[in-house]
């Protein structure tokens, strides 16, 4: 075991019936690091994220979390810190229960695990809302009263409620408009700087991954074909498939790219 690693996936395989989806996948995540996971639709990114979360199957291989093998172990059966691997998914509209107030959404994971009394958990809500830059009066409101970007902030706050060491972020900004994407990405970075949480950041969008990742893994047909420092992989890719992904990104949607650059530039100027 390497003590410098938070997550160490070793030769992970997943089959869905006859379909061999993950093929000897090895990938590491260091404490406080963001690893971007890119690849075309159907390449197996979500399957790997779900395996790490304990909500998807593993046929063989090991997933070490802080040295403990958690492969095939559902979240409820995970001991200690491994219980606190959290997730933020793509769709902020369907991932929040519409009949619950934001306060109830935020305290539910804490109460469900018996980690705090309702009174203590409620006291945490204000802090969580502040962490994601939502007003404290949001607590008594319902998801329908918020925009997509605000709902994704609620989903991030819910993930933070258990003080996780890792959040699996599966396309967490894909459903948002471009300026909201930039602001939510900025929030992910700010939270990481403050808390030291690590992210596995799954996206088909290389410009998003480039903005947020320390290292990038490229997945093709269930295999990691390239894994390295973000600058290295995106500026000097070693694999043809990565080069094709990089070439495809700006050409496929030049207007989106220009808008995104403008949004990031505005962010960098503090607008
Ligand atoms: N529960 C399941 N049962 C059967 N096949 C599945 C299941 N989940 C995923 N698959 C298949 O596994 C393959 C990989 O899917 P996965 O969702 O991991 O890809 P992805 O890279 O995340 O794609 P996308 O970017 O479109 O979300 C696909 O062929 C998919 O149809």
Automatic annotation (TrEMBL):
InterPro entries: AAA+_ATPase, ABC_transp_ATP-bind, ABC_transporter-like_ATP-bd, ABC_transporter-like_CS, P-loop_NTPase. Pfam families: ABC_tran. Keywords: ATP-binding, Nucleotide-binding, Transport. SUPFAM superfamilies: P-loop containing nucleoside triphosphate hydrolases. The keyword Secreted does not apply. SMART domains: AAA (SM00382). Residues 7-246 form the ABC transporter domain. GO terms for molecular function: ATP binding. Belongs to the ABC transporter superfamily. This is ATP-binding cassette domain-containing protein. The lineage of its organism: Bacteria, Pseudomonadati, Pseudomonadota, Alphaproteobacteria, Rhodobacterales.
């Amino acid at each position: 075991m390497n003590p410098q690693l938070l997550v160490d996936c070793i030769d992970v395989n997943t089959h869905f019936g006859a379909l061999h989806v993950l093929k000897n996948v090895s990938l590491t995540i260091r404490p406080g690091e963001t690893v971007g996971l890119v690849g075309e639709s159907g390449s197996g990114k979500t399957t790997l994220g779900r395996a790490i979360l304990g909500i998807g199957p593993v046929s063989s291989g090991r997933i070490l979390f802080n040295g403990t093998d958690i492969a095939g172990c559902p979240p409820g059966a995970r001991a200690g810190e491994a219980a606190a691997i959290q997730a933020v998914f793509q769709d902020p509209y369907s991932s929040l229960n519409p009949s619950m107030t934001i306060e109830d959404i935020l305290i539910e994971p804490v109460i469900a695990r018996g980690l705090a009394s309702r009174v203590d958990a409620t006291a945490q809500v204000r802090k969580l809302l502040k962490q994601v830059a939502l007003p404290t009066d949001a607590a008594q409101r319902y998801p329908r009263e918020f925009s997509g970007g605000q709902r994704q902030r609620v989903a991030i706050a819910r993930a933070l409620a258990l003080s996780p060491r890792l959040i699996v972020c599966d396309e967490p900004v894909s459903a948002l408009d471009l300026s909201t994407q930039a602001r939510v990405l900025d929030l992910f970075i700010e939270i990481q700087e403050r808390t030291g949480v690590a992210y596995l950041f799954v996206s088909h969008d290389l410009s998003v991954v480039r903005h947020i990742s320390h290292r990038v893994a490229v997945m093709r047909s269930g295999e990691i074909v390239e894994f390295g420092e973000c600058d290295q992989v995106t500026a000097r890719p070693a694999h043809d498939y990565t080069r094709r992904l990089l070439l495809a990104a700006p050409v496929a949607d030049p207007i989106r790219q220009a808008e995104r650059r403008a949004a990031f530039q505005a962010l960098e100027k503090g607008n």
